[in-house]
Amino acid sequence: MRKIIATSIRNLYVASSILAPVTMLDFYPAICTLFIVTLHNVNNIYMELFMKNALGNLVGIPPRNRKINLDSKYVDCYYKNNPYLTTFWNCLSLLFPQGEKFFVDSVKNYRDKITNDKLLAEISGFIGQESFHSREHLSLNDLIQNSGINVDIFDADLKFILDIARKLPPSWQLAATCALEHYTGIMGHQLLEDSKHNSNILYEYHNLWIWHAIEECEHKAVSYDVYKQVSNSYLLRVIIMLAASVVFFAVVANFYLRMLWQKKLTNPIMILDAVIYLSNLFKDLIPNYLEYFKPNFHPSFEDSSVLIAQWSYKLGFYTPH
Questions:
Q1: Which one of 114, 115, 181, 213 has the lowest number of neighbouring Cβ atoms within 10 Å?
Q2: Separation CA 193–CA 30 (nearest Å)
Q3: How many angstroms separate the CA atoms of 236 and 295, rounded?
Q4: HEC string of the chain?
Q5: What pLDDT, on a 0 to 100 scale, did the predictor assign at position 151?
Q6: Residue (of 68, 124, 80) closest to 315 by Cα position
Q7: Structure confidence at residue 317 as a pLDDT band (50, 70, 90)
C-alpha cells in the first residue's frame, strides 16, 4: 500500500514539474484522477484483507495481524538460553517464508475447483494466516542475518529445491503441502500442549512461536480437505509423505549444521547434547506422524481446540466460537 501511495505522489510531482506553466485549474482533473486511482488500489488491498479476515473468522481460522517486536540481543539464545537449541528453531524460521508461499500456491492452484462455501472460507483464512506468518518470520530472519548467519545462501538453496517442486504436477505439490502441514500441525499441537517445551521459549520469541503454533493447529486440515476434493489418492498421499519426509529432514539437518558452523558453535559435546534433546522431544510425535498413513486419516482427529482456546485467552486473542 505504501508503495502505491508513494508511486502516486511521485507521479503527481513529475506531472506538476512538466505542467508547471499550466494553471492549477487545468491541472485539477489530473490530480483528482490520480487520487481516485490511488484510493481505488488501496481500497482493493484493504478489501482483500478484510474478506480474508471476515471469512476466516466465520470458520475458526482468523488471520491475526500480529506484529511482534523481537529484541535482537536474544536472537541467539531465546530457547532455554541455549544457542545450540535456539539455532535449530532459527533454522526452521528460515524455511517458513518460502515454504508457506509454496503451501499457499499449491492450494490456490485448486481454489477455482472448490464449490464448498465453508472450505472456500477456510482457504481464505489459511492464506491470510500463512501470509502473516511469512511476514513475521522474515522479520526474525533479518535478525538472524544480522547475528552472523548468511541467510541469503540458505534462501537460495531453498528456492532451488522449491523451484524443482513447482515443476511437479499440481496434485503432487498439494500432496507435499498436506504432508508438511501435517508436520507443522503436530509440532504446533505439541508446543501448545507440552508446558516444559513451551516454557523454554523466552522473551517475545515465546509469543511468536505460540501464535504460529495456534494458527497451524487452526488451519491444519485445510490443504488436506482440498486434496480430498480434487484428488484423494491414498497411494499418492503416502508416497509423497515419504518423499517429503526425506527431503525435509535432509534440508533441516543440512541447514542446522551449516548454521552452527557459521555461528562457530562447534563444540561436539554441545552439538550432541542438542541433538539428543531434540530427538527426545520429537520422538513423542512419531505416533502422530504415523497416523497419516492410515487410509481414513484426517488432521482433525487430533483435537487442538481446547489448547487453541487456552492459549488464545492467554495471549489476548479473539477465539471464534
A1: 115
A2: 59
A3: 12
A4: CHHHHHHHHHHHHHHHHHCCCCCHHHHHHHHHHHHHHHHHHHHHHHHHHHHHHHHHHHCCCCCCCCCCCCCHHHCCCCECCCHHHHHHHHHHHHHHHHHHHHHHHHHHCCHHHCCCHHHHHHHHHHHHHHHHHHHHHHHHHHHHHHCCCCHHHHHHHHHHHHHHHCCCCHHHHHHHHHHHHHHHHHHHHHHHHCHHHHCCECHHHHHHHHHHHHHHHHCCCHHHHHHHHHCCCHHHHHHHHHHHHHHHHHHHHHHHHHHHHHCCCCCHHHHHHHHHHHHHHHHHHHHHHHHCCCCCCCHHHCCCHHHHHHHHHHCCCCCCC
A5: 97
A6: 68
A7: confident
Check: CB of residue 174 under 8 Å from CB of residue 106: yes
Residues in the chain: 321
- Residue carrying C-alpha cell 506484529: 67
Return the pLDDT at 12. Answer: 41
Facing residues of 201 across strands? 79
Other Cβ atoms closer than 10 A to 199: 10
Distance between CA atoms of 245 and 252, rounded to whole angstroms? 11
Q: How far apart are CA 99 and CA 248, in angstroms?
A: 11
Q: Which amino acid is at 97?
A: P
The 10 Å Cβ neighbour count of residue 321 is 5
pLDDT in tens, 88-137: 999 999 999 999 999 999 999 999 999 999 999 999 999 999 999 999 99
* Cβ neighbours of residue 117 closer than 8 Å, sequence gap 6 or more: none
| Interatomic CA distance for residues 230 and 110, integer angstroms | 8
Residue with cell 530427538: 279
> b/e map of 83-101 (b: 16 or more CB within 10 Å)?
bbbbbbbbbbbbbbbbbbe
